[in-house]
Design goal:
Layout: E1 2-7, H1 10-15, E2 19-23, H2 30-38, E3 48-51, E4 54-56, E5 67-71
Parallel strand pairs: 1-5
Antiparallel strand pairs: 1-2, 3-4, 3-5
Length: 77
């Protein structure tokens, strides 16, 4: 049982890798995943997240086999 976590842009450099797998045990929401990640590497408060390529908020539920992506806010010009 695992959740695949991916990091994009400068977040990849911040955590030192582009992806990892976390045990799905005791993880219910994206907020749970962030708590685990922030124990090692503090992600910016402005980070955006998606579950299976759909934008999601911190209270969104995750389940075994999901892919959760974190990326910085996107700006355009």
């Amino acid at each position: 049982m695992a959740i695949r976590v991916r990091y994009f842009a400068n977040l990849r450099e911040l955590v030192g890798h582009s992806e990892e797998e976390l045990s799905a045990e005791n993880i219910e929401t994206i907020a749970d995943i962030l708590r685990i990640i922030n124990q090692k590497n503090k992600l910016p408060d402005t980070v955006l997240q998606a579950i299976n390529m759909d934008y999601a908020d911190l209270n969104s539920t995750v389940k075994d086999g999901d892919e959760v992506a974190f990326f910085p806010p996107v700006t355009g010009g």
